[in-house]
Design a protein that fits this description.
Helix content: 25-40%
Structural class: alpha+beta
Strand order of the largest sheet: 1-2-3-4-5
Oligomer: single chain
Largest sheet: 5 strands, antiparallel
Mean pLDDT: 96
Distance between the termini: 18 Å
Radius of gyration: 11 Å
Strand content: 35-45%
Order of helices and strands: EEEEEHH
Number of helices: 2
Shape: globular
Number of strands: 5
Length: 78
């Protein structure tokens, strides 16, 4: 499970077998999790995050989208 970065208590990562899907990032904090598509940035699913946290995470993903895409492309060779 390649970790990309930690920002504001959130861990951003993807799974090594995620390459069959469009670029996305998983987010965790404690027992909460979410998955965001990167092109365009959009919430795919969420568990236990409340709305204001999802808004904050969406902003983080939007600001760091290029870094996340670079990590994705580097890992999956696309």
């Amino acid at each position: 499970m390649p970790n990309i970065t930690k920002i504001g208590g959130y861990r951003f990562f993807f799974y090594s077998n995620d390459g069959v899907e469009p670029p996305h990032v998983h987010v965790r904090r404690e027992r909460c999790s979410a998955k965001f598509w990167l092109s365009p940035v959009d919430l795919e699913r969420s568990t236990r995050f409340v709305a204001h946290e999802l808004n904050e995470i969406r902003q983080i993903v939007t600001r760091n989208r290029e870094q996340f895409l670079e990590a994705w492309n580097e890992h999956f060779g696309t």
